[in-house]
């Protein structure tokens, strides 16, 4: 049984806020010092940002991006097409292919959670619900990175594998844009939204790879 996704936290660290809107921590500090963004400082001297304030920094002048469902696409259909595309493109050898069957399946589970989170984000009716859908995917990406580190897979190896899975998904979205005859700005918004999500997932994966604690990581 899948666990219910946890609601996003109301207060963010500077690195979480940075990942959320794709700007550097230095930029967030500059905005705070200029009075453009509110933050409070903990007794330990760390900034905390309200999620609502961070999301409010995102541009909102453009029309809302249409959900997958509004485009006549279901998550199940996208998954089927994505897996077909992935199989057609799987020409380069990956360290995952060298794993025993049980361990390879263990890596597939967070992969499925990541894919479900991305689709949930793209199909969410509100940004808040999108973040709720994505929270589980970010945790899964961090766990994937920790599992890879436990298998002595270096940063280049785990990044290359992530990018191999990212490209077919973005290609499938471009096919959706063509199939549904989206305007250029709508197609760009769809691809950019997914690209930003994958950027955040890659950061989470690399953070999990970097921050893994000593001792074995469970291959769930």
How many angstroms does the end-to-end distance come to?
14 Å
User: Helices and strands: which structural class?
Assistant: mainly alpha
Widest β-sheet, arrangement of strands = 1-3-2
What is the helix/strand order?
EHHEEHHHHHH
Q: Please report the number of helical segments.
A: 8
Radius of gyration: 18 Å
What fraction, in percent, of the residue positions are helical?
55-70%
Would you mind describing this structure in some detail?
The chain is mainly alpha-helical. Helices cover 62% and strands 4% of the residues. The protein folds into two domains: 11-55, Multidrug-efflux Transporter Regulator, Chain: A, Domain 2; 69-211.
Secondary structure topology:
Blueprint: E1 11-12, H1 14-21, H2 25-33, E2 40-41, E3 47-50, H3 51-55, H4 75-89, H5 101-122, H6 127-150, H7 155-179, H8 184-211
Antiparallel strand pairs: 1-3, 2-3
